[in-house]
Specification:
Elements (H helix, E strand, L loop, with lengths): L15 E6 L8 E2 L16 E4 L2 H10 L7 E7 L4 E2 L15 E4 L3 E7 L7 H16 L8
Antiparallel strand pairs: 1-4, 2-7, 3-6, 4-7, 5-6
Length: 143
């Protein structure tokens, strides 16, 4: 009998996350850093932001700066992730929005095509809050 290392069996279930954007991507594409961000000053993104909640992904799609169609992708990580410091502990204790970021690419494995967005009033109120923060020198995304 041959000795084999105790390697866990590959699971058919992977943790997937949501990524809200207006970028037109396809299943199999990778979302990567070093491209223009959809948020803030449109600087090159140092991180990719994602969430485990649909509501947070909807906000991401609705607040993205591009003129494209709002989209929510299901993505799989290819490397380590960390809590998003823009939303965790600074604004909310712990990570209630289940928001994360990573320097590693994320593979698009699906798209959520049926979802209910926030009301126009809610979106405008959020944009107004973000604009007020920007006037105070506080960016929505701090790298």
């Amino acid at each position: 009998m041959e000795n084999k290392p105790n390697v866990p069996a590959q699971s058919p279930f992977y943790q997937t996350y949501f990524h809200g954007t207006k970028a037109d991507l396809k299943i199999g594409d990778f979302i990567e850093t070093d491209i223009s961000s959809n948020y803030g000053q449109n600087n090159k993104a140092k991180y990719i932001y994602l969430t485990a909640t649909l509501d947070a992904a909807i906000w991401g799609a609705e607040l993205a700066l591009s003129e494209g169609r709002e989209r929510i992708y299901l993505v799989e990580q290819t490397g380590e992730i960390e809590d998003d410091p823009n939303l965790t502990d600074k604004k909310f204790s712990g990570n209630p929005t289940k928001s994360y970021r990573s320097k590693y690419p994320f593979k698009i494995v699906g798209e959520v095509t049926i979802w209910q967005g926030h009301s126009a009033e809610q979106v405008q109120a959020m944009k107004d809050r973000l604009a007020k923060l920007a006037e105070q020198g506080v960016e929505a995304i701090e790298d």
